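Researcher: Batch entry, complex prediction.
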Amino acid sequence: MSDTRMVRFQAEATRLGYDFSGPLQIGGNYVSTLKHGGVLHISGQVPRVGSEVVVVGEAGTDVTLERAQHAAQVCAMRARVLIAQAEGSLDAVQQVLSVRVYTRSAPGFTQQSEVANAASDLLVRVLGPAGTHTRTSVGVAQLPKGAVVELDMAVAVA
Amino acid sequence: MSDTRMVRFQAEATRLGYDFSGPLQIGGNYVSTLKHGGVLHISGQVPRVGSEVVVVGEAGTDVTLERAQHAAQVCAMRARVLIAQAEGSLDAVQQVLSVRVYTRSAPGFTQQSEVANAASDLLVRVLGPAGTHTRTSVGVAQLPKGAVVELDMAVAVA
Amino acid sequence: MSDTRMVRFQAEATRLGYDFSGPLQIGGNYVSTLKHGGVLHISGQVPRVGSEVVVVGEAGTDVTLERAQHAAQVCAMRARVLIAQAEGSLDAVQQVLSVRVYTRSAPGFTQQSEVANAASDLLVRVLGPAGTHTRTSVGVAQLPKGAVVELDMAVAVA
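Model: Structure tokens for the complex:
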């Protein structure tokens, strides 16, 4: 496989300790990706691997910053899998445009940016300059399946 | 009226027990819809009918899953009214692109996807394949007017 | 400076009592703005001036509605600075398309629309009809750096 983005993706999967090669489960009546006008919209991703959400709970109480960052990276990896499935390869990504990162947050937890940085860093590591993006990070009350992080994005594709 | 989407819309309005024919009230200095580059952006909708928000409260405590789903459907119906007003008819919808569903959630409530499914199902029932969409569902601390659900969307139009 | 939008921007800065002429600090590995297909995406802005977030806390308990509105205006001013930096001038703005306003909210605080109105009003005062927009306002559990408000937007540019 000469696709260096896919090679870097696999390196990240190995580092995180997960296999992202299976089908991705969806939690409702919607589609994972949809392309219009050269922009691929990607549904909100929780850190699910196979049928398990790998980090559940609330950042600042039962989930540490490090585990929330781990979760954010899994969400970003899932988004990448979906892009590759929709477009055939990560090479189709011209530019990640916008990323929204929702962190389930305890009242005193204000490190939503630090959680999101873990996903942002991974995007740039895998995609290079095409992985830079605008971003919004907020702390929410709760997320589907009790996940600690959810992430969605829009990506310009060839 | 030969527009089958509008006929299906009316059937859903009858099922929900509301009349959506009046003007839709807006809570601030913004517009309900705005079109650019073939995409219609729709402002966040709470489940208001006339001047009343029909389901207020917090999912998981004073609002059941069923009532939150009812609210999500009312939000989706309002969005449809706004599309029809902006474009003359629901026939203009080529594809719903992205939907965000915010559910006011008690600490232990994790069925945000199930709430959002009620809106997603209704979109597909009324619009057919054009109603499928990408989606993000999160649980928030509070919503305008105490509403239990808020929903916004972007739609590709002819 | 004959640019009346920039003149009006300066008048708002004076009224708010801040100097927005310095570089804007960013809290993570992302970019403040990114343009694609005639749309400028703007990252989520907290009410930071220089290195200080000027209003921290929770609307409804330690932050009044008036202070949250002040914060929303600072967020909107920051977004304007970023547009002017990216495009050379506020004259490039054809239309603000969508604005999302996240207010950190106490359980009983339901005036998210009123908070967002302060930002919406300011957008229209500075940009005129080009400042009208679609909007989504939600109440969240927490925000980066403890900010009371965060705001992002997408803007059509020439």
